[in-house]
Amino acid sequence: MTDQQFKYRVVFFHQPGCAACNAMKPVWAETANVISEEYPHYAVGFGEWDVTTDDWAFCDQINCDGTPNFAVFGEDAKLLGLNTEGILAQSQLKDFIIGAIEKA
Fold first, then answer.
1. What is the pLDDT along the chain (104 residues), one digit of tens a residue?
2. I need a surface site. Which of 30, 38, 41, 94 has the fewest CB within 10 A?
3. What residues have CB less than 8 Å from 82, skipping those under 6 apart?
4. Does residue 1 fall inside a structural domain?
5. Which domain holds residue 77?
């Protein structure tokens, strides 16, 4: 699937040295795989944002004030959901992402 084919994008905001972020990395990867396999019709792209090297001003614009955080964006980069709860179980992260997409 090429970049242009994604209808939704999910971003994992993290930073090096963040224990909670490191704990979420395998959960993030598993969730991305599950959603890609179970919901291919949603055409979801997954990416990561290192808040120490990427544009922190963007994080401020969407009220992403810590890590780990997860954001779901729709077409035209519209923010559909922001989860700032930190460590989540795989089922919680999946429910947040699918919920944000289905409410769009």
1. 444 589 999 999 999 999 999 999 999 999 999 999 999 999 999 999 998 887 778 888 899 888 999 999 998 899 999 999 999 999 999 999 999 999 99
2. 41
3. 62, 63, 64, 69, 70, 71, 72
4. no
5. 7-103
